[in-house]
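Quick question: what would this complex look like in 3D?
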Amino acid sequence: MHFEYNIISGDFSNAGSASSQIKKVLKQLNVETVTIKRIVVALYEAEVNVVAHSFGGTIFVDINTEEILLRLKDTGPGIPDIKLAMQEGFSTASPQVREMGFGAGMGLANIKKNADKLEIKSEVGVGTEVTIMVKLNE
Amino acid sequence: MDNQYFHHALKISEANCIGCTHCIKVCPTEAIRVKNGKAHLFENRCVDCGECFRVCPVNAIYVDHDDFNQIFNYNYRIALVPGVLIGQFPENISIQEIYSVLLEIGFTHVFEIEHTVDILLEARDDFKKKNPTIKPLISTFCPAVVSLIQVKFPALVENLILLKSPLDIAALYYKKLLTEKGIPEEEIGLFYITPCAAKIAAVKSPVGENKSVITGVINLDFIYNKVYKSIKQSEKNHCLIPHKDELYAKGILWSLTNGEKDTTDGRSLAIDEIHNVIEFLEKIESDEISDVDFLELRACDESCAGGVLTSGNRFLTVERMKNRAKAVEENENNFFLSSEIKNHKAFLINNMNVSKIQPRSMLKLDEDMSEAIKKMGKMREIMEYLPKTDCGMCGASTCQTLAEDIVMKRADITDCVFIQRIMEQKGSMTMNEAIAKMKRIWGDKFNTK
């Protein structure tokens, strides 16, 4: 099953709308509540990242009985040093973004903690593609 | 779990129901459908919030409370009264007068349940200390919220504070008080005067407990009318019993919005009205809001002052209760009952816990995930055909709900009036067939002359 959601750059008021829709889908599919929580937390963090840092992007969601695959593809500045960005506390968020309660630098680390697999491909000046996989049957 | 029977206090009177769309539109859990011209309730989805009760234009939705006269089956008839009862009356009717009349109409004892708040607070602090990792802790005071979490936010049942409500503690206390005086249990009737339907459901099929100690539940609206009538009719002054057991201010304010929140340390929030509660729980469930220590959630606007069985205007009720609390705080001569309760504190604290509350999720399309995925695929396909007008003419509140009902085999795509017209145009449905369909949903009430 495939879903797609658009993410608009800077639209913090709607950040989280994709994760809440996916949450409803997962509840309907009778996925364990603990697993749903991991997926939703990871997706929400990733969604906020795209809103905060990119020029906009798309979420591609694929679900089968084994796993859920979340692919967030954006156009934007890209991440120069992925390893550094993965560290807890690392943040490039602007003061405005931090004032809104985002940008504490927990984003990627938090996604990794909740995902069974996390893959980040990024090209500076072009964009970033974050792929999150969570197994549904464990 | 899903097929288990849950007692619901809200019932639909088939005789009175005219088959309209008011209730299906406001139900926050999509628990109502119209078929054969009558509203039908999915009991497993209903959380007894009473939104349908509020909007029904013909009072076809009623609350299944206990008959008042059954109190006379007991020698000791205790009225367990919520603070909001006093708030129903204008300020010129004194608390003494109201309580005196409660005794005149048949009760032998009157006890305000919020007297137990102090003890609950102690137990709550202890629960908090023992569960430092649960964030936020969610109050179980409002039974409609507890049900809502069970059916719609199953992951959050872990956050519920597993302690009895002031009502249950009050019932336990009074029973203990009387049995200690040698009164046989079977002579004691404990009756709660309820401002809402959810409390009735909570007493009849308690969550996290086997059986409630409360004997019966009586509609607050009924008691209000009976008491008010008695006050208005009698020329003579009522024999006033001195109101010696004043509540502490926090007890008086407990059932109002912020009543619990104002007694907590740390970051806590108070949210009232069921749609506001749902909106907030969505965010909590996704971890969008963290670092909240405590949540006070109430299904009704202005909390219990806005209960579906209250008669007074909720803002005036709040005003009177706040005035009462203020007067208590200013008057140092008040005699508080709490010393007597304190003698039973150890017993009450030991009996304060309720067992783990189980989720009863209503959302899953199938136990088996591959079946559920198939059904969801079908639902999405059906949605391509439905008009997304959410008109309710199929008897379900939204097109999405109809799509779900179709894959769950509770409805058919031809229930949609838009689909019917297109089928008529294509010649695959006759007008008579469409009208027959309409009658199956809305009943045979159309003047076809």
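Answer marked as accepted. The domain at 10-63 of chain B is CATH 3.30.70.20 (Alpha-Beta Plaits).
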